[in-house]
Amino acid sequence: MSFTEQLRKENDDIFQLIFEHPFVEGIGKGSVPNEAMEHYIKADFEYLNAFMKIYGIAISKSSNRDDIHYFFNKMKFILDDEIHPHHNFCAYIGVPYEALQGHPLPPTADHYVKHMMYHAQTGTLAETLGALLPCPWTYQEIGKELMKKYEPTESHPFYQWITFYGDTGARNVTAEMRERLDTLAESSSPIEKQHISEAFRKSCELELAFWEMAYTCEEWPSKRKVMK
Ligand SMILES: Cc1ncc(C[n+]2csc(CCO)c2C)c(N)n1
């Protein structure tokens, strides 16, 4: 079993909880509360900005052109392609994308971004990839699960979102990142492998927590409506 196959197996409990989450199920059923959707897009726009900056840190840790080229292309993929699923969600709630940009991250998204930043700043390139990999991997499997379970057609409100992640494009993003991590892990020490596993599991937890954050419209304590 490859290193990333092992990671997937060890974290299957969290993958299953993600597939069952009401926000994810709502995407499959074609119905998500507008407030939850708005909360998600606001946080995810800023999350993607942070993700690109982490690719930038990964470039600074790269030791060859091939790695630099890989991260450069992935950054471009976020800029040019990852906006399509966001547009699909914006159309659903009838809010212009621009209105959902530039908002501060709620606590869970803030934690997730800083967790990835931490591993990128203090760890090796392999550890950085360990923290990044659950992002494409969970979404690719969500897309695949929703295609299988709901067999959406073009009239489904989230057809674009589901097919974007369930189709081959997203599968390639995950496969490429896994390949890179598997290659680097071959020459990693046991302690480095442990750091990668810990970073991977926490990112899986934070993927699940991100859906929950959006679904519950999580806010910072000072912004919560019930304070007394
Ligand atoms: C919280 C959260 N997690 C994952 C994604 C999906 N995603 C973001 S960047 C990327 C490509 C990796 O190069 C993918 C698949 C998201 N939008 N928001």
UniProtKB/TrEMBL annotation:
Indicate yes or no for the key word Translocase. Answer: no
Keyword entries, A-Z:
Hydrolase, Thiamine biosynthesis
Q: Which CDD domains match?
A: TenA_C_SaTenA-like
Named in its record, the pathway it takes part in is: Cofactor biosynthesis; thiamine diphosphate biosynthesis
Q: Which SUPFAM superfamilies does this entry report, sorted A to Z? A: Heme oxygenase-like
- EC number(s) given by UniProt: 3.5.99.2
- Looking at the Swiss-Prot or TrEMBL record, what is one Pfam family this protein matches? TENA_THI-4
Q: Which Gene Ontology terms describe the biological processes this protein takes part in?
A: thiamine biosynthetic process; thiamine diphosphate biosynthetic process
Q: Name one GO molecular function term.
A: thiaminase activity
Q: Does the keyword Hydrolase apply?
A: yes
Q: Which domain of life is it from?
A: Bacteria
Domain called Thiaminase-2/PQQC: residue spans: 12-216
GO terms for CC? cytosol
What's the catalysed reaction? thiamine + H2O = 5-(2-hydroxyethyl)-4-methylthiazole + 4-amino-5-hydroxymethyl-2-methylpyrimidine + H(+); 4-amino-5-aminomethyl-2-methylpyrimidine + H2O = 4-amino-5-hydroxymethyl-2-methylpyrimidine + NH4(+)
Could you describe the subunit structure of this protein?
A: Homotetramer.
Q: According to its UniProt record, which protein family does this protein belong to?
A: Belongs to the TenA family.
What's this chain's function? Catalyzes an amino-pyrimidine hydrolysis reaction at the C5' of the pyrimidine moiety of thiamine compounds, a reaction that is part of a thiamine salvage pathway.
Identification of the protein by name: Aminopyrimidine aminohydrolase
Which species is the source of this protein?
Answer: Oceanobacillus halophilus
